[in-house]
Amino acid sequence: MLLWNLARGDSPLIVSVPHAGRHVPDAIAVRLSDRAREVPDTDWHVDALYRFAPATGATLITATHSRYVVDLNRDPSGQALYPGADNTELCPTRTFCNEPVYRPGEEPSQREIDARRATYFDPYHTRLAREIERVRERHGYAVLVDGHSIAAEVPRFFAGRLPDLNLGTSDGRSCDATAQALAAGIVSNAAGFTHVVNGRFKGGFITRRYGAPAAGVHALQLEMTQACYMDEANPTQFDASRAAALVAVLERLLIALAEWRPGAIAR
Could you state, in order of their start, the residue ranges of all structural domains in the chain? Predict the structure, then answer.
């Protein structure tokens, strides 16, 4: 099975969706707990939400495998994204609800983790890096949007309810200030949605790894609550009509970022 689906575009924009995949190879699936086999921590339907992206000229890369195989948005060195907070691993062993991912005694060894990194993690990042460089060579810069979603309430990671639209730029380090201001303006004006900029989610490994404004790569992460576009109690079902308002916001965001130029004055 392919590790990702890739639709190449000609604009400066790349959209990465690393956590919407649901596939778990049989050799791993047989070791998972009953709950984990349902892959509950999937970024449900984010691939569908961004399906329009290639029509705007953007490049879209979506991973096919579940984050339970390997988490493409974690630092493979093991360094925590949020020091002092509860962080998930490269190969998660607990669900977001703190339930075991594996049956007792079936957790992956370090040797297996290393093998999964070589098989799944490294190839995805090699391809993503190549696409970023292709776009940067063509335009002189690249804009990367890393697309994610999560349940509105996950006590393991944050108290209370998360805002609907969570824009992260590693506290402004991963993109030009005008790109952040442009994106923040769009999410803040999205009628019917709450938002925050660099709140609980400031951008994961992908945003921090590739965002290098001085080198012409501007990266932003958008973490969305699943409750704002789907029924969290019935996650496998995608309701396009319910998601339409959010897709319209994403369309405005991607078009604006594709038209943005480094050094432009934010409006």
Answer: 4-259
Residues in a beta bridge with 196: 166
Predicted pLDDT of residue 166: 98
Q: Considering the domain 4-259 in this protein, what is its CATH number? A: 3.40.630.40
Distance, in Å, from the CA atom of 224 to the CA atom of 243, rounded to the nearest integer, reads 12
Residue 14 is encoded by which pair of tokens?
């790349």
Q: Are 238 and 48 contacting, i.e. CB atoms less than 8 angstroms apart?
A: yes
End-to-end CA distance of the chain: 44
| pLDDT for residue 264 | 58
Residue-wise pLDDT for 74-85, tens only, equals 999 988 888 877
